[in-house]
Amino acid sequence: MVAAEAATRWLADYHNLSARHGLDGNALLNNALTPANREQPPLFSLAQLLANPDLLQQQVREDYPDADHPRLRKARLSVLHQSLALQIIGPLVIRLFRDGSSVALNPERVFLCREPSGPEGQSRWQYAASAQERLEPEAFLQSLSGQMQDWYGVFRQHFGVSPGAYWSSVGLALGAPYSVVWNQVNPEELCKQAGSWLAQFKCEANRYIDWIPAEFSQQRCAIPQRKGCCLKYLLPGGGYCGTCGIYRKERMG
Q1: Which distant-in-sequence residues (6+ apart) come within 8 Å of 137 by Cβ?
Q2: Which residues of the chain have pLDDT under 50?
Q3: pTM of model > 0.85
Q4: How far apart are the first and last CA of the chain?
């Protein structure tokens, strides 16, 4: 169990690191939160998906003609899971670091909706959160860890999302606050903090993400490297993710 003072310490360490580099951590985190789009009519909720995985299988087949091919269908489902992590879980963690508490992740209030401004068939996850559903850091870590463990079986068994793809996408989301300052603070210290933070979650996410110091255009920075591929490169216009450690040579090229 994560002690309350230990969970709070990681938040304090993050803001201290930002302040030592002349940064306003709260302002940076606030800017990283994308304003919510006007809520679109939902296709179904995450709770419905978890109870009946065929809903997502059917939706993917309807939206994407190439989903008849098993490998491309698996890639579509893997990328949809990555979107769930980055669009829903990541912002909740950012709010935790900004506010000291965060909204509880309620799958009944998470919806897959049409993306009005995107290509035909493109969907986006939206969260209709309640202001009253808030958790302190210790409770947030425990609750989210349990949910990630519980949901793994659905995405692995029903959608074929690999362990590396599932947990590395979760790991990217859990480390979202560190991605906000990836090139603005000391890389070694950031990598140490990010790795220590991920290790507090009682799930496999920390096994599939490595934060490493790097240098781009003569600027030192810290980047998260996935140990699992989301398969986005298989999709039309997909390309290689900037965090992909498996296809790092191709990505860097």
Answers
A1: 2, 4, 7, 8, 10, 11, 96, 100, 101
A2: 1, 251-253
A3: yes
A4: 43
